[in-house]
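Quick one, tokens below. Sequence please?
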């Protein structure tokens, strides 16, 4: 995967992460009994955050002080 492709993937992951955050807030504020759905969305959001961190770490070079 090239650096440009990684940056595009990173942007898409961030958008999906933000969308999941909005969906979770909507489900919680609706007060529905579907806690399983909320838990699944939160797990998905955590996986996205891990993927985002991994790509950001790969794009940012290590700087030795």
């Amino acid at each position: 995967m090239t650096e440009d492709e990684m940056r595009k993937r990173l942007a898409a992951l961030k958008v999906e992460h933000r969308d999941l955050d909005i969906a979770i807030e909507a489900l919680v504020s609706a007060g529905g009994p579907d806690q399983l759905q909320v838990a699944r969305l939160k797990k998905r959001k955590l996986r996205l955050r891990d993927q985002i961190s991994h790509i950001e770490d790969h794009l940012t070079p290590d700087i030795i002080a």
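The helical segments are 3-30, 35-59. The chain has one domain: 3-59.
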